[in-house]
Amino acid sequence: MLFLKYMLLVVGLGMFFVAAVIVANDAWLLVQYRRKTALGTVAVEPQPIRWRTTVALVCLAWAPILIGMSIVVVASGMAGVRVSQTRGTLTGTLYPGVHAVTPMIEHVETFDMRDKLFTTGSTEIAGKYLKEDKLTTKAEPLKVQSKEGLSLGLAITVRYRLDPRRLDYIQSHLPQPIETELVPPIVASAWRELAPGYTVRDIFSAKREEVRQRAADSITQQLGADGIVVKEVMLRDIQLPPEYAKGLENLLLKEQQNDQLGVETEIHAKQVRISELDAEAQKVAQVKGAEGNAQVKVLEAKGEADAMQYTLPLKQKQIEQTRLEAEARKESTIKGAEAAAEAKVIDSKAEMERRKFLADAEANRIRVTAAADSERMKLEAAALKQNPLLINKIVAEKLSDKIQLVMVPTDSKFFFANDVFKGMNPTNPVIREQVDPEDPTDNSNQGH
After folding, report:
1. What are the CA-CA distances from residue 189 to residues 195, 218, 323, 357 (Å)?
2. Which of 126, 258, 308, 374 is a Cys-bridge partner for 139, taking CB atoms 3.0 to 4.6 Å apart?
3. Which contiguous run of DSSP H or E holds residue 353?
């Protein structure tokens, strides 16, 4: 935004410069023409001065200049207020950022909103602070009078900042700059009004924090009424008069010795008291120990008596329990023997029943098998009766898997061989061959 502001100002000034150059150039050409005419030299008459163009450029130049002047940029850590030439300081604070003002009538007064330090005393902090602010006054200790009338030098540091909500009041009512015109007198006045109410000893050591706190409250109240926020008031150092400092040092040494003796006396008294308390504690402990032992013995005797009262019934109950357990074991043994005998009787009966059932089953099987064999034999007899050659077939089938070659005579002198082979099925795999034993040409019977 600053770039835009400066660019507008440069453009406006450039237009003013161009207008001035145009007027100057036209005037110079006119002067040259008149000079040549006065000398009798022929010259071309120049154009008249371009006032209309110049006025137009001047009027246009005011536009970017006014726009640029209406832009105000408040930097970080700063704040500002509008100051009008017709209405004075306007209410409202301008915080960091871009703001618009009425050009040529209003301007912005900016204030540093960061914390500031007011310091008295020749210290490095004070020297640096004064160097940055370019103050010519040397930061000397603040001189105050104590209750005794002695002069003290105070090294004080006040940390403060401006209240941004009251910048319009600060600008219109307070002297500027407030860092040098307002803060130092108020701080010095507060300390100089407060110090006469205390002695040097109080300010230096006894009531130093109380004095600092009261001074801080006074400074905060006075500066706060003018829109200045005080954050901290520090009392860094106190410069005593040389004679008083020396006497105070001796007094402090004596008080320190007195305090040391008092502390040692208290320590010895406490040690004596501790010894007495230890003796009393030991006595009480012994008494308590004896009483405790006696009570323990009484309690032990009473406990044994009480235990005997409960032990006898317990023993009787144990004896009764043992007797009942023996009777129970006896009863269980008898019951077990009876149960075993009954079990054996039942087992023997079951075995007899089983054997009886097995015998009946075997007899039934034999009867059934005999009846089946009898029926089968009847059927076979009937079949043989109907077909006598069935016997031959059966014999041949029995022998068929054991005999590969059978030679029988053809004269039917051998039992039933011819009938058997004659009645066999031609598809039987057994090789049949008839041999004539009386034929001398038959070689197949050789070797048999």
Report:
1. 10, 10, 111, 139
2. 126
3. helix 242-386
Closest CA to 142 of 122, 124, 127: 122
Neighbours of 242 (CB within 10 A): 8
Sheet with 106-112, strands from edge to edge, namely: 88-89, 78-84, 106-112
User: What are the structure tokens assigned to 226, written together?
Assistant: 């003018």
DSSP state of 94: B
**pLDDT over 90, % of the chain:** 13
The DSSP 8-state label assigned to residue 204 in this structure reads I
Q: What is the pLDDT of residues 334-372, one digit of tens each?
A: 888 888 888 888 888 888 888 888 888 888 889 889 888
132-154 pLDDT per residue, tens: 444 334 568 888 888 888 888 88
The CA distance from 299 to 322, in Å, is: 33
Q: Kindly report whether the global pTM for this prediction surpasses the value 0.70.
A: no
Give the separation between CA 107 and CA 428, rounded to whole angstroms.
146
Interhelix angle 208-225/183-194, rounded to 10 degrees, is 140
Distance of CA 67 to CAs 5, 12, 85, 116, 407, Å? 8, 10, 19, 35, 152
Query: Which two three-digit tokens encode residue 436?
Result: 């004539």
Q: What share of the chain is helix, strand, coil (3-state, %, to 5)?
A: 65, 15, 20
**pLDDT digits over 5-42, tens only?**
778 888 888 888 888 888 888 888 888 878 877 776 75
Q: CA angle at residue 301 from 300 to 303, to 5 degrees?
A: 60
Pair 16, 58: CB distance under 8 Å: yes
What residue spans of 204-241 are helical by DSSP H?
A: 208-225
